[in-house]
Amino acid sequence: MENYEKSLGHWVKKFYLLSAREMDSLLSPYGLGRTQWYILHHVNVVGQLPQRELQSMLDIESATLTPLVAALVKKGWLVQQPSPVDRRAKALRLTEAGARHFRAVPNPILLGRRKALAGIDAVEIERARKVLERAVRNLEKGGDP
Q: What pTM, to 2 d.p., does this model score?
């Protein structure tokens, strides 16, 4: 069995956990967690977003998304209303206050990436990205290697 600390999986997991911690640390002063930031980000990009579509984009369960959306609604940053297409479904949009707040928050992905990749050459970064992309595609295919 290979040494776990030298495995790609170990470093991917460690990078994910440290990146998540860094993002949470950057967002905390703005009253946001990383998933809440992603919610505001996606709604900001699209304008009005069906909640089910957002759930799919974030790849999370409804039971996880619902309280996060409720907290953003309570803060006055998000409006949840019946979808204009399907009245049974809910659509999300930013309030003026939510849009202002979102614009005031520095992009935690860019800040975290700058810190994490400091001193690493662009060619190395691209090579690592390609390796991880291929590994993900292999797993998405399923079956035996």
A: 0.85
